[in-house]
Design goal:
Strand order of the largest sheet: 3-2-4-5-6-7
Structural class: alpha/beta
Strand content: 15-25%
Number of helices: 13
Bound molecules: S-adenosyl-L-homocysteine, iron/sulfur cluster, FE3-S4 cluster
Distance between the termini: 56 Å
Shape: globular
Number of domains: 4
């Protein structure tokens, strides 16, 4: 047994990152049985679930969306905010009943919650029937853990492989058109509110040759788009022995000629001029940047440990806008960080008014046990924070709509991903700048890049009609 430990994460002094190749095993000991896989959280988790799915399929199983018929249930959890925890506990309540009826059921909890010591203790106290807790560094062991638990034992495997980068991972991907590609794991930024550096470990970059090979393979399989993934993509390469940075990696990926390249997430602190110029230079690098602001107040930014000021952030936005034609910028903002005053909040609104974001994810600050911010005094009533969030969202939506309206009657290139959820006679896809468009076009366009005339603009989506296939 290897219990997760937040303190250990904080004091980590990794000697050397180990690069390991995984072997595919073909042990179909659960052949014909069903698994249920539920994913919470960010793109990182969505992509990790694609690895879990490949492992479960490798055991001979098929996926079900019906919890009741599953032999194996896997929850891939998130820990970013309190409500992420609540959702998982709600789900475990349902699973408890199923386990009573079917003691052979194997329940496995993975993802970021499983990296938190206190949470794992609470989960096991309230739900002692859980068979497996596996950490974000132990995903590749899921098959073996399930095999060991076939007779109802309990295994907790967290943190034991921190510091490894695995290659040769199989993914059962959600899409045949767009694919996630990890370029690095972990985060070293330690923003004072954030749990991620503890749950995901130290920054570890994949070697460029492995990344390029993966992108080339995806292109050969017909993928139209890759999204390079990392908590901090512009910190890429800092830990490698060779001198390569994110701008160089982007350039290498662009040269594979895969039609579309995206990346998340960029930290404003090490967003270089070279990166901006590279994005502008290659037409297959999409002119879309998610640039988390978090707060517009210099005092709060300092308390958050974000390493930039409002002025520096605005200067960066200006440089991005000047160099990358037609770029769209979205952001993440936290309201109600400990000690945030009305004045601080006004600074955030001021930045929003200046940048006029194309969209934003906005959150009320959530206290995460073990982070420095959890020890800061926080006296602002929830009602005040909720009012700030509402005001912020109204402003964000106003600018999102304005930015969409600018596209009315314009021609946009759209990568079609599937049948529209709102209207089965339409398809949906995304513009280069990541705007969702519902298009009156035949389903044969799925997986293709089409030219679309924008006919209507709302806050969160556009309507359009096909111009050519
Ligand atoms: N690595 C990315 C973000 C990962 S988490 C980055 O640095 O931008 C996604 C978003 O969740 C963050 O940008 C932040 O806005 C929000 N978030 C993280 N911790 C939070 C907390 N404790 N309370 C509220 N929101 C939080
Ligand atoms: Fe969290 Fe900051 Fe790292 Fe993003 S950069 S994952 S907000 S610690
Ligand atoms: Fe959540 Fe972990 Fe992602 S905490 S947001 S799933 S990195």
């Amino acid at each position: 047994m290897n219990l997760p430990n937040l303190q250990k994460a904080k004091q980590r002094t990794l000697k050397e990152i180990e690069y390991k190749k995984l072997e595919t095993s073909n042990d179909e000991f659960l052949k014909g049985q069903k698994f249920f896989l539920k994913t919470y959280g960010c793109q990182m988790n969505v992509h990790d679930s694609e690895q879990m799915r490949a492992i479960l399929i490798g055991l001979g199983m098929t996926e079900t969306t019906n919890l009741e018929e599953a032999r194996v249930i896997v929850l891939n959890t998130c820990a970013i905010r309190e409500n992420a925890h609540d959702k998982v506990f709600g789900y475990l309540g349902r699973i408890k009943h199923l386990k009573k009826e079917n003691p052979d059921l194997i329940v496995a909890i993975g993802g970021c919650m499983s990296q938190e010591e206190s949470v794992v203790s609470e989960i096991l106290k309230r739900h002692p029937y859980i068979n497996i807790v596996f950490g974000t560094h132990n995903i590749h062991e899921l098959g073996t853990l399930i095999k060991n638990n076939i007779h109802g034992t309990q295994d907790i495997e967290v943190f034991s492989n921190e510091g490894c980068v695995y290659e040769g991972i199989n993914y059962a991907r959600d899409s045949k058109i767009t694919a996630w590609v990890n370029i690095m794991y972990g985060c070293d930024k330690f923003c004072t509110y954030c749990i991620v550096p503890y749950t995901r470990g130290k920054e570890r970059s994949r070697k460029p040759a492995e990344i390029i090979e993966e992108v080339k393979k995806l292109k050969d399989q017909g993928y139209q788009e890759v999204t390079l993934l990392g908590q901090n993509v512009n910190a890429y390469g800092h830990d490698l022995k060779t001198t390569i940075d994110f701008a160089q990696l982007l350039e290498e990926v662009a040269k594979t000629n895969i039609p579309r390249i995206r990346f998340v997430t960029s930290h404003p602190w090490n967003f270089t001029t070279k990166m901006i110029e590279t994005i502008a230079k290659y037409p297959n690098i999409m002119p879309y940047i998610h640039l988390p602001l978090q707060s517009g107040s210099n005092r709060i930014l300092k308390l958050m440990g974000r390493r930039y000021t409002k002025e520096e952030y605005l200067k960066l936005v200006e440089q991005i806008r000047k160099t990358i034609k037609g770029v769209c910028i979205t952001t993440d903002i936290i309201v109600g960080f400990p000690s945030e005053t009305d004045e601080d909040f006004k600074d955030t609104l001021e930045v929003v008014n200046k940048v006029k974001y194309d969209g934003a994810y906005t959150f009320i600050y959530s206290k995460r046990e073990g982070t420095p911010a959890s020890k800061m005094t926080d006296i602002t009533p929830l009602k005040v924070k909720e009012a700030r969030l509402q005001k912020l969202n109204d402003l964000i939506n106003k600018y999102a709509k304005q930015s969409n309206e600018k596209l009315l009657n314009q021609e946009e290139e759209v990568l079609v991903l599937g049948i529209s959820e709102k209207d089965s006679n339409k398809v949906y896809g995304y513009t280069k700048t990541m705007k969702l468009v519902n298009v009156a076009a035949p389903k044969e366009t799925i997986g293709k890049l089409i030219n679309v005339k924008i006919t209507d603009a709302k806050s969160f989506s556009l309507d359009g009609e096909i111009l050519s296939k």
